[in-house]
């Protein structure tokens, strides 16, 4: 073979090996680009920054309302400790209404804040999805370059280098590039997992938003009841302190009589059932069911914020129920009392097994008779509680069901028994 032919072959191989070197440069460029892209915190887009500013403004406003609520809470506590008179009662109601209005406003701001956070999260997820596509394209390019490099044999690569040392350095360089490629793939997997986590967080925030909306509706309903109660109290008393104190006395007598009757009548009913061996009471092992559709509890057992706490203790829970809602027996048992007091406080008491009894107060219509056996879930009456309506009584905070649970005649927290 001639010297010219040998030189031609040598330079051909040299150029081929040069292509390998170029491929290595391309690989290094893309690997570095990926590492740089994945490793840097990208600045917020103008739209995301705008939303972030709006979220902060909402949060600051909500914090301000919370501070004002604390002031109303202190004022309410002060008035509740003062002498019970008409002016004081009006002040208590005013504070409760004002505090509740602030709570509604704050809840509305929280809903707006969550909505903005979800919008911001959606933009960030969209940005990450775009970024994921770009990185996949980068890696695909690198893999294609590596595929081309694998088609060139070691002898050809060696011809490009002046010594074995240079060749080994080139091999080490390519190994480093391959290692960076692996790191980039792992970064992509991490990015994917982050994306999935953020999607899960978005779903949770959507759920939280729905709960906040329901909470807002409940508070609006409670606010209307408070305002109605306040207005009715003014009409009843005609702003007269004497008339107000008369109503207070009537309410205390009404509640004291009801409590006494409940205890004595339960005892009498149990003694009567003991004498009739065929009338055994067995309590459902699953516990009590909600007497009205399970929803918001507007006043809790011995609630310190109960509007008429300083008139009488609250030995029950108040369950939100619009006027005329069907009341069902919480458990099977015998009706010990079905008192229709006209415009006064009407109630139903049922005795059950295991020493339990239940009382359903502010009943606008009674549908059972005393000593009648009722089964769990049976309709026993209709709810009331709207001031000035049948069965509501002299002091009521609006439409609801007053629900008591007693164990051996002593009031206990109903929420511990309801399933």
What fraction strand?
5-15%
pLDDT below 50 for ≥5 consecutive residues: which ranges? 24-32, 34-39
Order of helices and strands: HHHHHHEEEEEEEEEEE
Structural class: alpha+beta
Portion of residues within helices: 55-70%
Q: Let me know the number of strands.
A: 11
Anisotropy-based shape: elongated
Query: What's the total helix number?
Result: 6
Radius of gyration: 38 Å
Largest sheet: 8 strands, antiparallel
Structure description:
The protein contains six helices and eleven strands. The protein is α+β, with helices and mostly antiparallel strands. The longest helix is centred in the middle third of the chain and has 74 residues, at 164-237. Residues 24-32 and 34-39 have low confidence and may be disordered. The strands form two sheets. Strands 1, 2, 4, 5, 6, 8, 10 and 11 form an eight-stranded antiparallel sheet that branches. Strands 3-9-7 form a three-stranded antiparallel sheet, with no helix packed on it. It has helices at 3-39, 46-80, 86-150, 154-160, 164-237, 241-275; strands at residues 297-299, 317-320, 326-328, 333-339, 347-351, 356-361, 363-366, 373-374, 379-383, 400-407, 410-412.
